Amino acid sequence: MANNMTDTITKPDTNNDSTSPQQNGNTAGQSWFERPIPGIKQQLTAQLTAVETEPSTKCSSCHSIITNTALIFNCYVCPHCDHHLPMSARERLNWLLDQVEGELGQEFTAKDPLKFVDSKPYPNRMAEAQTKTGESEALIVLYGKLRNLDVVTCAFDFRFMGGSMGSVVGDRFVQAAEKALADRVPLVCFAASGGARMQEGLLSLMQMARTAAAIERLRIAGVPYIVILTNPVYGGVTASLAMLGDIHLAEPKAMIGFAGKRVIEQTVRETLEEPFQRAEFLLEHGVVDEVVHRHQMIDTIYRLLAKLCSVPNVDV
Ligand SMILES: [Zn+2]
Fold first, then answer.
1. How far is the CA of 213 from the centre of ligand 1 (A)?
2. What is this structure's pTM?
3. Cα 113 to ligand 1 centroid, rounded to whole Å
4. Of 5, 17, 63, 245, which sits 20 to 30 A from 78 (CA to CA)?
5. Does 59 show up as a binding residue in the annotation?
6. How far is the CA of 85 from the centre of ligand 1 (A)?
7. 81 labelled ligand-binding
8. 309 annotated to a ligand binding site
9. What's the CATH code of the domain at 245?
10. Does a structural domain hold residue 79?
11. What is the pLDDT of residues 96-124, one digit of tens each?
12. Is residue 137 in some structural domain?
């Protein structure tokens, strides 16, 4: 009896002591606002860490945050608003080519003949751009295969001093054109540039004539040259190699022109409306042959080249 009595007295006490903190979520000794709310609070912290750890990019059009993995899988097109985000030159060429066989023009390096200094010396600016992009110049030339076609391709990297055309860009473009001419394979160029590079003065302006002469040699030999105008293309690049293609494609809403909107407005003393210098506006006015969504770009380039190179059994 005595044992039973102690059991019945002590058992409820021990049970209460041991079970109450577990069942009530350790509320003993805590005020009401310190009590954890398991479902909500844990979920919130989990979401925050996922966003913090995954590298992501903000869409410049709709401002939504997109993970870089999702962007790469979607060819740098925003999945929310279809805005075409910029691609680096190397990414673009690796995306276009099924097989890369080699690169041209790596031996050329920029000189500083004018000893040009603006807010900083030209060699310092070059070194900064090289560190930022991992590239040695603003134009990348790769050759290889697009499906069953041999092609020479080049692309401007706008992150490298605004994709500006200096003497090395001219050297590389001419070398690409000479390779296309020697092998009699098409040349494809993705243009994205602010124009000629002011730090090289007249030398950069001379590249307009050099590249135009190289394209003329392709035209005489009947070697196809296709230009894809991406956002933005301006200045000396528009005035030379970007407007001398056999076919001009453009990405949606790309800004394409010679002088910028503000300069023209100041010159003609008129306000220019929004579609001005957009790819769609230029398509209506016959400057561009077709505005192509990035998801259809590779297929469109291939079909055009196959037609120009008379490849049989390709539906154009
Ligand atoms: Zn967007």
1. 40
2. 0.81
3. 43
4. 245
5. yes
6. 9
7. yes
8. no
9. 3.90.226.10
10. no
11. 999 999 999 999 988 898 999 989 999 99
12. yes
